[in-house]
Amino acid sequence: MGTVQSTDFRIDAAPRNGHGLSLSASAAKRLATLSDLEGHPVLLRVAVDGGGCSGFQYRFELIQQPEPDDLTILTDGQAAAIDPVSLPFLKGSEIAWVDDLAGAQFVVRNPNAASSCGCGVSFSI
After folding, report:
1. Helices and strands (H and E) in the chain: how many
2. In the beta sheet, which residues pair with residue 50?
3. What is the pTM of this model?
4. Which helix (H) or strand (E) holds 36?
5. How far apart are CA 123 and CA 52, in angstroms?
6. Whether 67 contacts 83, CB under 8 Å
7. How many angstroms from the chain centroid is the CA of residue 37?
8. What confidence tens digit (pLDDT) does each residue in 35-84 have?
């Protein structure tokens, strides 16, 4: 499996301004697979929206380019983009790919979440 990469956007490989965000090796591997399947690089956009059963919910989407003000984190040549409004809610979090009996999905391991719903998509602070 080859890895499709792009270098025409800003990448923060190390934590900047103390955000402590990380993209796990499992998430990077899944993004590499998705990039290969798509035939072009894809990034994972992670955002926090109001709503869900616990107050906030995570939104994941595959994109080709981050927005100019996004924070972009890198692991093993793969990237995730986080908008500046969502960043405070995600500080210190790990973005991972989990494949278990409950299903295969991207997840956020968020140390800021006081509680979350059973499916892990919504949370409260």
Report:
1. 2, 9
2. 56
3. 0.76
4. helix 25-38
5. 8
6. yes
7. 19
8. 999 999 999 999 988 875 657 888 999 999 999 999 999 999 999 999 99
